[in-house]
Specification:
By secondary structure, the protein is mainly beta. Helices cover 10% and strands 48% of the residues.
């Protein structure tokens, strides 16, 4: 029944997105308004003010945020801008305005459900009529901009159109403005379509990122010098983003080779304009081909190949300055499952008691169907974007892989206090069917463990109820920190039927228990050395272990370091060295079942390093 309702929710979301897209041409860009922290399931909010060097607000400044997606905002008369519903992750922020010197970009970490502030002052350029256009020569300032009435169109698109270099057809009729072409028969035939096409391509600025990385994994440091660890694998990743006035077109791809040859290709469109509907839709396709000698992997993959395709669409509907609806869904086809079609959906309503009060209340419900091995084919919310890197199989080859189902309902409140401090509280309930267990480095039925391969079992069904509190703060100097505490009680409804789980680790047999979790995140940038650090530390009282009878208290982590290479910026691109290590298995720490990370046994430490180029 739940799955049927979810399919209708996804269908309704798709219809709503289509209607919103058809009506987008009639939606006017609204003035940016100061808002408080906007609660979202997996997105955050970024806001700020652009001023000149005398402290006066600047109207019409272009603010660009480049990260896992790309967004553009234009400041209002008070110099304010707001990026709503940015996917959580790290973003490079820039601000530009005609006649002002652009400042150096700054990296900001956007955290799910939190508000981040970024403000900057622009310095006015001295008047210089000898400015050169790259590869062209001096600019004829007498004809650069004809006199216009005060009510002329000052939008970014119009500003760019007025500065398009003159071509042969423009120069054929001196003194004639482009708008006068419409007076002729040819102008009436092609004038409007030509201006529409010119506006689109003039507003199309291509941005990108290239990663050349190497990754491997190990249990102990000495394993790096033996054959017990996985061999290093090269990874190539490229991202192209075409920002437009209303939203961003993004294409991403990643490929690796070796005994596991795999690639991911994804495309999406996200509408970021301050309109009633802000939506995002996309699709991805991933494939994994195994050419190694692991008998389990060969038997599990069948023809040696696994393919996954996904479609998704989400919409944020701002009814007024107090009420916001967010809804959407995802359809995935996992060809290696007996039932390959998986449907997930979510819905939430946010209410602000007062337009000037930063307090936000949110009620949300979600249904997720999670495929075993899905973490190998999806894009992470933090860290580099990697293609499928490991193989997996069922704990028992006689048992087919099946999906995990999670139904989640939550009530939350979040507000900003004392400047940049954001405090949130939440209460939730979950109902989980076919909870997955992930086993690394464990021998099963006298079959030894193989590096780069893990086994998946099912731990039964259970219900969970809990609450949590989180604190987030942005400090001066680019330091952003968050601390989340969660406590929940879990009650099994059905125990697993596979005896192999009990022989491997009795701690996987969960009875009624109360669990405590503390997750800390720190993101900072050292300006003196142009170095950025990202640290995630997760402490929990109920991790499963293959060598104990009961769950144990333990910690897992992720550390990522980005070192800018300013001496390489002569090419106009930004160069960085990247290095990271983690033993967190899941990227989604606050999405899915509360047991997803806890029932991962002996996750290896995964190392990634290489070069990142942004252009």
């Amino acid at each position: 029944m739940i799955r049927s309702v979810t399919r209708w929710c996804v269908l309704g979301a798709a219809v709503t997105l289509a209607l919103a897209s058809a009506a987008s041409a009639q939606v006017l860009k609204q003035q940016s308004k100061p808002v408080g922290a906007r609660a979202a399931l997996s997105a955050g909010e970024l806001y700020g003010t652009i001023r000149d060097d005398h402290g006066r607000p600047l109207n019409g400044a272009v603010v660009l945020a480049v990260g896992s997606t790309q967004a553009i905002e234009i400041t209002d008369r008070e110099g304010r801008f707001t990026f709503r519903s940015l996917p959580a992750g790290e973003y490079l922020l820039r601000a530009t305005l005609e006649g002002y010197a652009p400042p150096r970009g700054r990296y900001v970490l956007v955290t799910a459900g939190a508000r981040q502030a970024w403000s900057v002052a622009l310095s006015r350029l001295a008047d210089d009529k000898s400015v050169l256009t790259a590869g062209v020569g001096g600019v004829d300032t007498s004809a650069a901009e004809p006199s216009r009435p005060d009510d002329r169109d000052t939008s970014e698109v119009a500003w760019r159109l007025r500065r398009i270099p003159r071509g042969v057809l423009k120069d054929a009729t001196p003194g004639e403005s482009p708008d006068s072409i419409e007076g002729s028969l040819l102008g009436r035939a092609v004038g409007s379509p030509a201006r529409l096409a010119s506006a689109f391509f003039a507003d199309l600025t291509l941005k990108g990122q290239i990663n050349l990385l190497t990754t491997t994994s190990f249990d102990r440091p000495q394993d790096l010098f033996t054959f017990s660890s996985g061999s290093p694998r090269p990874i190539a990743y490229i991202s192209l983003v075409a920002p437009t006035r209303d939203g961003d077109w993004t294409v991403r791809g990643s490929v690796t080779q070796g005994d596991i040859s795999s690639w991911i290709l994804a495309g999406s469109y996200a509408r970021h304009i301050n309109a009633t509907h802000r939506y995002e839709a996309g699709a991805s396709y991933s494939t994994q081909q195994y050419q190694g000698g692991n008998i389990e992997a060969i038997a599990a993959t069948g023809d040696g190949r696994r393919n996954v395709g996904e479609l998704y669409g989400y919409d944020t509907w701002t009814v007024n300055n107090r009420v916001t609806f967010a809804y959407g869904g995802k359809y995935g086809s996992y060809w290696y499952l007996n039932d390959p079609s998986l449907v997930s959906g979510r819905f939430s309503v946010s209410y602000r008691p007062s337009p000037v009060d930063p307090l936000v209340l949110r009620l949300s419900a979600a249904h997720r169907e999670i495929a075993p091995g899905a973490e190998e084919f999806g894009a992470p919310t933090i860290g580099p974007w990697l293609p499928p890197q490991r193989t997996f199989s069922s704990l028992s080859l006689a048992t087919a892989l099946s999906s995990e189902s999670v139904n989640h309902i939550e009530f939350a409140g979040e507000g900003q206090v004392r400047g940049s401090i954001v405090i949130g509280v939440r209460a939730f309930r979950q109902r989980v069917d076919d909870q997955m267990v992930t086993l690394f480095g464990v021998a099963v039925a006298e079959t030894p463990a193989t590096p780069g391969h893990y086994r998946i079992g099912m731990a039964g069904d259970f219900d969970a109820f809990g609450w949590g509190v989180g604190v987030r703060r942005s400090l001066n100097g680019g330091v952003q920190a968050s601390l989340d505490y969660t406590q929940f009680s879990a009650t099994p409804r059905r125990y697993p039927t596979d005896d192999a789980l009990f022989r491997i680790s009795p701690a996987l047999l969960r009875r009624e228990e109360r669990i405590h979790d503390l997750t800390a995140t720190l993101n900072t940038r050292l300006s003196a050395t142009a170095t950025r650090f990202l640290v995630v530390y997760k402490l929990n009282t109920a991790y499963a272990d293959a060598q104990t009878m009961r769950p144990i208290a333990d910690a897992r982590f992720e550390i990522q370091i980005n070192q800018e290479l300013p001496f390489m910026n002569f090419t106009g691109a930004e160069w960085e060295m990247l290095a990271g290590i983690r033993n967190l298995f899941r990227s989604e720490l606050f999405d899915g079942s509360v047991y997803d990370e806890l029932l991962v046994v002996r996750p290896p430490k995964r190392v990634v390093g290489g070069l990142t180029v942004r252009f």
